[in-house]
Amino acid sequence: MTIKIIKKENSNYDKKLLIIGVFHGDEPQGEYFINSYLSKHPENGKNSIYYIPCLNNSKCRKNINGIDLNRNFPTKNWILSKNDNYFGGKKPNSEKETQFLVDLINKNKFDAIITIHSPYKIVNFDGPAENLAKKISEFLDYEISNDIGYPTPGSFGTYCGIERKIPTLTIEIDENEDIKILNNKFEKIFDYLKNEY
Q: Which of 25, 119, 163, 169 is the most buried (most CB within 10 A)?
């Protein structure tokens, strides 16, 4: 497993943010958006941003060990579930990717965390992130919600947003929208996060 983290860090930053492109391997668009943005905008802004273009390169929802990373976090609501597409492992925090993020979050005081998923066309928020969700929804013209509509035991949003009170967004993109149009929208989102949030 290799996870590339790109730090655009200032010594005098206002906020520190984390943006993750690919959490589920079959949702690759976020990596494209991040890499495209960084190739055109390498400079720093007022905020310090850590980018992880691809956390999971398995090319399927679960990682190479057959674990849904978004059900593997050591949350109060983690459960041992049946071994299906949402299997959270035999125990929480068992996966290297999960351990990497838990360690990263423990070592850094992030002011907000954003992950890019598909296909639900919604800006889902956990923790104190409603205002940020409203702003991001303006760029995408998506609804916002603090409920994805089904249980998510052991999720990253619960771990960061609900239990640690870090504003956390899960941007679920419309996978049927043209990737170039979406990329233009994400350039504006990343500009906002870097320079205005």
A: 169
